[in-house]
Protein: bis(5'-nucleosyl)-tetraphosphatase (symmetrical)
Amino acid sequence: MNLEQIIQATKEQMPLSRWEHTLRVRDTAMALAEGESVDLQKVELAAILHDYCKFWPAEKLMAQIKENNLPEELLLYNKELWHGPVGAEIARKEWAIEDEDILNAIRYHTTGRPGMSPLEKIIFLADYIEPGRQFPGIDKVRQMAKTNMDQALLQSLDNTITFLIEKRQKVYPLTLITRNYYLEQVMLQERS
Ligand SMILES: Nc1ncnc2c1ncn2[C@@H]1O[C@H](COP(=O)(O)OP(=O)(O)O)[C@@H](O)[C@H]1O
Structure:
């Protein structure tokens, strides 16, 4: 497995604007990783690969979900949720990435999950706050991410859930469970 080959192949999966987003996610993730006990090579690899399948056709993603026995419940929700879990399978099969932490960072970068590792949190937040993102409340999350990643996660999950409710869209239950988990974590931290 060679990073240059992975970079080239990833670039070929997406339009230039999404590749530029990927590079900003990598840079943001590397900055968030400062002072955290994470392997920077893993941060870079997970960031590069996180959107590998983002522009694959829905039929191809659907076939991969079935073929790899991924949760079929995903098919009942927004298509945007499919590329993370499929991306993790592709990273394992095409790029021989066996590191579960990297695979989980790719797998859960859109939905989150309770008990995320530092690497998973970094990729989730970097995707959310990279400098190309512009929406109300983003600067608050950027500030939080510098001092307390759990608080930043909670705020970004709250924002996403509120956004989906306002758009009258279904919320994937794992994201609700994740939000409740991080609310508890933040409340415990505030009490201690
Ligand atoms: N828990 C969820 N349930 C349903 N849809 C969701 C959920 N989380 C995110 N989404 C949808 O996915 C989109 C963002 O997915 P993401 O992987 O971050 O893509 P992008 O990088 O293009 O923002 C949101 O705009 C929303 O429409």
In short: The radius of gyration is 16 Å. Residues 139 and 153 are 13 Å apart (CA to CA).
